[in-house]
Design brief:
Blueprint lengths: L5 E3 L2 E4 L2 E2 H8 L3 E5 H14 L4 E5 L6 H9 L3 E4 L2 H9 L7 E3 L6 H10 L3 E4 L2 H10 L6 E8 L21 E2 L10 H10 L4 E7 L10 H21 L5 E3 L17 H18 L6 E4 L3 H4 L3 E12 L5 E5 L8 H5 L6 E3 L7 E7 L8 E9 L7 E5 L20 E5 L2 E6 L4 H7 L4
Parallel strand pairs: 4-20, 5-6, 5-13, 6-7, 7-8, 8-9, 9-10, 9-11, 11-12, 12-13, 15-17
Antiparallel strand pairs: 1-2, 2-3, 4-14, 14-15, 14-19, 16-19, 17-18, 20-21
Helix pairs in contact: 5-6, 7-8, 8-9
Ligand LLP binds next to helix 10 and helix 11.
Catalytic activity: meso-2,6-diaminopimelate + H(+) = L-lysine + CO2
Pathway: Amino-acid biosynthesis; L-lysine biosynthesis via DAP pathway; L-lysine from DL-2,6-diaminopimelate: step 1/1
Family: Belongs to the Orn/Lys/Arg decarboxylase class-II family. LysA subfamily.
Length: 432
């Protein structure tokens, strides 16, 4: 839940607005985003890491208002597609504070990035180096980072672990065949030979939903020696080191978050130690939190449509959303909680499974949660920690339509994104 959320009778106030009122006014399912919570999370990063660059990872969730909030709070933006890039720039996000990622950026995306003047492009493959070398010019030189695979396994699910070699991102640190240099060293060499590419540093991203500082320290242990080898081979001390994102947030009571203060202290200390050991100037640190900025600021509100008791004793509480607005349980087995809002209940708690409305049995939102035993059609259920990787990953499955997003602040609600309607689908359906 957002830090300032509180119970108010039978309801929950988020940003001073009762979730039941949001549901009544905007319909369900509906996503609610607490502006103050997003802003405060940005500020917490700036306080904990005052000398570092903090880029919000737009893939967690992006719309014009969120771009504006993080920009005003002094964060940069990590984008991973031409779409995210164009949206941010058209919303006035300064291009020089944008970092472009991606293992397979198209030539058009790279051209747009160079033309718009993005601050950094994180280079992820050899073909990309060749493409960028042609796109950059005397008038349009491009600052780049090399994405390195540090050989560190971390993250909540195999699908999001990007720190080891057998996955698609980045350049390996392992030596090449018959004594050849590693792909990472080769990438650095090639970029440094390109007159219009300016190599400003190294990047890595380990994975997502990491609650422990140790993997980040292990990554530093691999990256700083690479900085030293770049200095030895080319006589240049790269000024930046980007440790990516992946900072964990709790989805249910008692789950750990990455402790930001501890992370900041441990990472800066280890970086200084390693740099002094290798006689390197300390590079400027960058981080790219996505989930930790918007995740806990969001709440999903659903209406119960049916309740069914299986012969085996399970209670299925089916709501009006599901895997089309939150695919995370189906994709990663992610666990959530749900709370009855909008009415009082004295009924004892009983275990229930909150399921969606989609046409497959795996459409489960919350596999197991204690709800009042009298939960019934018409009730509202709130699912917290819904601000990251829900709407950004929402789909058009079953033509249900993606829910609207409502920002709440100081007791007022305003719609940031409207509900997707059948007309939206019809407009794309031009074949007949
Ligand atoms: N930087 C890079 C290069 C990334 O690839 C990512 C996430 C981030 C930063 C931000 O990670 P965060 O701080 O949000 O964990 N859909 C998955 C998460 C995929 C993350 C992909 N990359 C999920 O719902 O768990």
């Amino acid at each position: 839940w957002p830090a300032a959320a509180r119970r108010d009778g039978d309801d929950v106030l988020v940003g001073g607005v009762a979730l039941g009122h949001v549901a009544a006014r905007f319909g369900t399912p509906v996503y609610v985003l607490d502006e103050a919570e997003v802003r405060e999370r940005c500020r917490a990063y700036r306080r904990a890491l005052p000398d570092a660059e903090v880029h919000y990872a737009a893939k967690a969730f992006l719309c014009g208002a969120v771009a504006e909030w993080v920009e005003q709070e002094g964060l940069g933006l990590d984008v991973c597609s031409g779409g995210e890039l164009e949206l941010a720039v058209t919303c006035g996000f300064p291009a020089e504070r944008i970092v472009l990622h991606g293992n397979a950026k198209s030539p058009e995306e790279l051209a747009a990035a160079v033309r718009l003047g993005v601050g950094r492009i994180v280079v992820d493959s050899f073909p990309e180096i060749a493409r960028l070398a042609v796109l950059a010019s005397d008038d349009c030189p491009q600052d780049v980072l090399v994405r390195v695979v540090p050989g560190v396994a971390a993250g909540h699910h195999p699908s999001v672990r990007t720190g080891t070699d057998e996955q698609k991102f980045g350049f390996s640190l392992e030596p090449g065949e018959s004594g050849a240099v590693s792909a990472a060293v080769d990438a650095v060499d090639r970029i440094l030979h390109q007159p219009h590419l300016r190599l400003v540093g190294l990047h890595c991203h380990l994975g997502s939903q990491i609650a422990d500082t140790a993997p980040y320290l292990a990554a530093l242990d691999r990256l700083v020696p690479l900085l030293a080898s770049v200095r030895d081979r080319h006589g240049v001390a790269l000024p930046e080191l980007d440790l990516g994102g992946g900072h964990a947030v709790p989805y249910r009571r008692g789950e750990p978050a990455l402790d930001l203060e501890e992370f900041a202290a441990a990472v800066t200390t280890r970086l200084e130690q390693l740099c002094s050991r290798h006689r390197l100037p300390v590079p400027r640190l960058a981080v790219e939190p996505g989930r930790a900025v918007t995740g806990p600021a969001g709440v999903a509100v659903y209406r119960v449509l049916t309740v069914k008791h299986s012969p085996g004793g399970l209670t299925f509480v089916a709501v009006d959303g599901g895997m089309s607005d939150n695919p995370r349980p189906a994709l990663y087995g992610s666990r959530y909680t749900a709370t009855l809002i909008g009415r009082a209940s004295d009924a004892p708690l009983a275990e229930a499974r909150v399921v969606g409305r989609h046409c497959e049995a795996g459409d489960v939102l919350v596999p197991s949660v204690e709800l009042p035993a009298d939960v019934r059609p018409g009730d509202l259920l709130a699912v917290p920690a819904a601000g990251a990787y829900h709407l950004s990953m929402a789909s058009g499955y079953n033509l249900v339509g993606r829910p609207p997003l409502i920002a709440v602040r100081d007791g007022a609600a305003r719609m940031l994104m409207r509900r997707e309607t059948l007309d939206d689908f019809r407009r794309r359906d031009i074949g007949r």
